[in-house]
Amino acid sequence: MELLHRRCCGLDVHKETVVACLRLVSDGKVTTEVRTFKTTTADLLHLSEWLAANGCTHVAMEATGVYWKPVWHILDDGELRVARLAERVAHRAPSTLIAPNPRARAAGAKDTRRRQ
Q: 31: domain range?
């Protein structure tokens, strides 16, 4: 599979949390980091700062209902390219990573990896 984005993040947006899986490629080595943020404004700003600090350029988020709107408004104000995916589309995206931490929010962590 051709690598399209060297620094990207998949988000799984829930009512009270956002699970983020950041994927970075450097010198042919792929590293991932999964973090969970609350959906408060302060935590969403921390999410934005974390993505910026890691040089993330593209974000794909899966969300249903209206929970995606605050996340979109905060992330879309910066340099990030943000895409919202419907659940049925997101689950068809290639899944190339396996959850490294089974104690992490299993469904959210697996879903965020799928969006990369």
A: 7-114
Residue 84 has pLDDT above 80, yes or no: yes
Evaluate whether 109 touches 21 at the Cβ level (below 8 Å).
Answer: yes
Give the Cα separation of 45 and 43 in Å (integer). Answer: 5
d(CA 11, CA 71): 10
Q: Domains in the chain: how many in total?
A: 1
Q: What is the pLDDT of residue 71?
A: 92
**Which CATH number does the domain housing residue 33 bear?**
3.30.420.10
Report the predicted TM-score, pTM, of the whole model to 2 decimal places.
0.72
Closest by Cα among 55, 64, 56, 74 to 12: 64
Instruction: Specify if 44 maps to a domain.
Output: yes
1 found inside a domain: no
Nearest-angstrom CA–CA distance, 50 and 86: 24
Return the number of other C-beta atoms located less than 10 Å from residue 53's C-beta.
8
